[in-house]
Amino acid sequence: MKISPSPPAPLPQGEGSQIPPYQSPPLPLPAGEGRTVSPVSTRSWGEGDAHLTDDIVWAALAEVMDPEIPVLSLVDLGVIRAVYLAGDQVTVTMTPTFSGCPALVEMQRLIKERLQALGASEATVNVVLAPPWSSDWINAEGRRKLKAFGLAPPPVHGGDVQIMLFDTVTCPRCDSDDVTVRNTFGSTLCRAIYYCNRCQDAFEQFKPL
Amino acid sequence: MNDALHTALTNRLLASADDELILAHRNAEWTGHAPILEEDIALANIAQDELGHGTIWYGLVEALTGDDPDRLAFFRDASQFCSAQLVEQPRGDWAFTMLRQYLFDAYELTLLARLAGSAYQPAADAAVRMRNEEIYHYRHSSVWVRRLALGTEESHRRMQRALNELWPLTGQLFSAQPGDEILMAAGYWPDFDEMKQSWMSVVMPFLEQGELVVSDLVDGPVDRSEHSGHLNGLLADMQMVARADREAVW
Ligand SMILES: [Zn+2]
After folding, report:
1. Which of A112, B162, B199, B248 has the fewest CB within 10 Å, making it most exposed?
2. Positions in chain B short of pLDDT 70
3. Closest CA to A208 of A173, A175, A167, A149
4. What is the CATH superfamily name and number for domain B3-216+224-244?
5. Is residue A146 within a helix (H) or strand (E), and if so which, with residue range?
6. B178: which DSSP letter?
7. Of the listed ranges A6-10, A166-170, B180-184, the one predicted with least confidence
8. Distance, in angstroms, between A60 CA and closest chain B CA?
9. A2-127: CATH homologous superfamily?
């Protein structure tokens, strides 16, 4: 039996309650605009003493790869929310992708390790839930890398993931949109399985969330 | 936060955490045994998501009481759990598992949609965080319930049998526990009666479309301190390794 994309039931809605409409989290701003950096971030710690700057830290974090998708950096993935510097003490705020993502602990470890290698005297990684991570936060570079890796990038959904579940997916190999969803769950929490009718082969998609 | 509110909130968060943990364990029991490979993968994913949600709820409990989530999961006895009997039931057949998941997903989405507006910000943040993941579960379980309900005579019969067993257990999900009135008054938790009405307005027509008959409301368990006989066995299995070796890391 195949998983056919037969229409699912209507979703329970929040009608009759005080729920504000769901707002998509803001997109991370391009480098240099709006990164959260403490005022002392570029302070020099004496002659000849290599000092950390926010640019150095962000560049280093851009070299830390997602343990499950090793071509994608944590910055591409949009999980790094802020960097705070106090001298050579670094605090990084990050947010998990999927709630049950087992890579979260490994990501924290990799960030710490990278920051220590950079010369941070103290490296702290804080995990925050709000605003919730959205696959919309994967940057253009990340989307390009995903496609090259053979994973269809998630469509940008602007906060309403429902309307995007089965639409606007193209094959990462041939760009055909003649594709069929095989399983909205895949080999990791963030992947769905599709079939390209043109290539006549399966491919994986990074799921919109 | 006064003591009464603190206690009520802790108990309610613990109930949500326990529901997720126990359901995740039941679903994980299918790993390697699902009818087809795609479903084995899907249910393992869903179990992992629910476990992730449980971790978030236990984390909120920890922020209030300092209790270690691992201790809460692995070193409490059945009498200290607050899970609903719906999630404690053995996995049954595929119809039972999918219908249980559907009924619970519909409940969880109903809850999360309202909780996103909670005056208790950590709960509101958690709800928004989980909601999009839950949409995937709901779509998956509802497709299966419909397919089996409208499938063959045999699949319909099994789905109806599952409904007869599960339906009386759904009331407990919407039963306010002692202290919940304080949470509702504080705007920390949504109103249970309103949630139940909303849930019914979605679930009933869906089941009817599947030509499934909902029996007259049978009184099921209300209080979350009342557990099914199945919880003990589940905990024995789930907690065995942690209790055998307290230093174990995995
Ligand atoms: Zn193709």
Report:
1. B248
2. 216-218, 250
3. A167
4. Ferritin, core subunit, four-helix bundle (1.20.1260.10)
5. helix A140-149
6. T
7. A6-10
8. 28
9. Fe-S cluster assembly (FSCA) (3.30.300.130)
